[in-house]
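Exercise 7.
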Amino acid sequence: MELKITTLAERPGLQAQMWAMKDLWPEFILNDPIGWSHFPRIVAELPEYVLVATDAEDNVVARAFSVPFRLHAEGRGELPATGWDQVLLWAFSDRRLGREPDTVSAIEVCVATDALGQGLSGKMLGAMRDNARRLGFSEVVAPVRPNAKHLEPATSIHEYAFRTRESDGLPHDPWLRVHVRAGATVEKVAPASMTVSASVEQWRAWTGLPFDTDGPVEVEGALVPVHCEASRGFAVYVEPNVWVRHPL
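Solution. The predicted structure, written as tokens, is:
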């Protein structure tokens, strides 16, 4: 596929098409309150950290979001256990307080449903690395959502994250494998990277499942079971991710 990758700052007219791009995100993921409240801010305030890929007909086929933040601020230094949610909060807190960022974190790499299977995710990851380097950074970190973990939700993320193939020693998970091939190292697990808490009625609407008994519920697309408290009327999903580091 002929591909052109630019920042949204360079081509702001692609914003509407970028948002309209069809993807495979489960609906419950879109209801993480931190992501829901901060994603539009990335586009509005940090368009130079938003990458958009278009095909030969100028249709948007992929997007990639990242944010700059200060990892080595007082009280930080370590990649947080609360992963994706925390790095978004740090990025916009640093922006408000005028802290100089020293690191870029990946937030999303997403490919349109009709362009899957053509290696676009790896190209977008490479473009994100190049963009961070162009902006003066020496490292990109990523709270990676392993894209095959949902096939085995009962497996411990601590085992899954470091599972490798016997043939070449690369990660078992395809998306982690793309990162490692691009030069990243798998560092640690973020056990509480994203939290979605909602009523059982909302979970029923999102998933079509009954959510009528207490205990774990396996949901399509979820990396771990959702904890349901049907007797109390709510359910909570705490998603683990895997931190990787990309030196530039």
